[in-house]
Design goal:
Largest sheet: 6 strands, mixed
Radius of gyration: 25 Å
Shape: elongated
Order of helices and strands: HEEEHEHEEHHHHHHHHHEEHH
Number of strands: 8
Strand order of the largest sheet: 1-2-3-4-5-6
Number of helices: 14
Structural class: alpha/beta
Helix content: 55-70%
Oligomer: single chain
Length: about 350
């Protein structure tokens, strides 16, 4: 159980474990100058009841048990996105932890740090607990093994950033700059045009068209949404799965665009990352649904409004490939479902 693993890790890093009556609860604390920094860990993955009211009652009870000043943070282990959001809205000193994703869920209105605890939790959740040792156990002269451990931590810190999102952003900007210098050369060779794909077999255009844009405004609007959604989705899925989601959704949107152009008899060239970006929106919609109406800070109402407004704006605008938008969103929703199945299968 994660609650046991986590409590053992915190004990190794200076916390004292106080046994409670039930295995779903752990109380750990540190004392400094009559100030008690305490962490109450609750395992809500089973049938153990957790609510904002129960947390307030537990906090009041613990304060009566402790002599001196008490600083208390509650850490709830849960897979329930709705519960995490509810606790986040009503309990500023309560963090949620997804045991499957090994990720903290902290709302904007909550405390973002608690006396160094967040750094410990981040290290634990990245799977580096075994590599970390309390400072009292470290030697003054680093061994080669310690150097390798430091290198591992450095690589992990770098890889924790949304590298794929930044890479996609950089690629789009660079390609746009090259296009401005080479006139129409890249556009002619990379634009998505149905007859070229279907009759000539130039399927690569499904990918190349995703990195071409029709102007600065087109590029800026797409990259703005990419960064806003991409960082969150890459943090959730990881680099490889996120990259697969982005590219596959873009290809799906391109396929729907070609089909609709052929169906309507209005063949046209198409460029832009919109299909892939709408794929991210579709994936967010899937995650909101499977997490009972909330994913991170996004509610079902917010994501549906964003989808509705985006489609409406596309319909009202000229020269917008709405088929690619809708196709990318549907593809992203379906790919997110497939990724979720692979993730759950991998946990067995």
């Amino acid at each position: 159980m994660m609650i046991k693993e986590l409590s053992q890790y915190l004990v190794k890093n200076g916390y004292i474990d106080r046994q409670l009556e039930t295995k779903e609860c752990k109380m750990l604390f540190r004392i400094s100058m009559q100030i008690v920094d305490a962490v109450l860990i609750l395992d809500a993955t089973g049938n153990f009841p957790v609510s904002p009211e129960s947390l307030q009652f537990a906090s009041a009870s613990l304060k009566q048990m402790v002599r001196g000043e008490l600083h208390l943070l509650t850490l709830v282990i849960t897979r329930d996105g709705w519960l995490a959001h509810q606790l986040g809205q009503e309990c500023p000193f309560c963090w949620a932890l997804d045991p499957d994703r090994r990720q903290l869920m902290i709302e904007e209105n909550q405390v973002q740090e608690f006396y160094g605890l967040r750094g410990l939790l981040d290290t634990f959740l990245r799977g580096e607990a075994d590599a970390e040792r309390p400072s009292s156990e470290k030697c003054s002269v680093e061994s080669p093994a310690a150097g390798r451990s430091s290198g591992k931590r450095w690589r992990s810190a770098v890889l924790s950033h949304p590298l794929v999102t930044y890479g996609i952003l950089a690629a789009n900007v660079i390609v746009f700059l090259v296009c401005t210098l080479t006139d129409n050369m890249l556009y002619n060779g990379g634009v998505l045009f149905g007859p070229y794909v279907l009759e000539r077999g130039e399927y690569y255009r499904l990918i190349t068209s995703m990195f071409l844009h029709g102007g600065v405004e087109h590029l800026f609007s797409n990259m703005l949404v990419l960064v806003a959604l991409g960082e969150m989705m890459e943090d959730y899925y990881g680099h490889i799965r996120y990259g697969i989601l982005y590219l596959a959704a873009g290809v799906g949107g391109g396929c729907v665009s070609i089909w609709y152009a052929d169906y309507s008899g209005n063949m046209h060239g198409s460029v832009g990352a919109s299909g892939a970006i709408f794929g991210l929106i579709g994936a967010v919609l899937f995650l909101v649904i499977v997490n009972r109406g909330f994913f991170r800070n996004i509610s079902i109402t917010r994501i549906l409004f964003a989808i509705g407004y985006s489609i409406y704006a596309g319909v009202r605008s000229a020269n917008v490939d709405n088929a690619a938008h809708v196709g990318g969103m549907i593809a992203g929703f379906m790919i997110a479902g497939i990724l979720e199945l692979t993730i759950r299968k991998g946990r067995r």
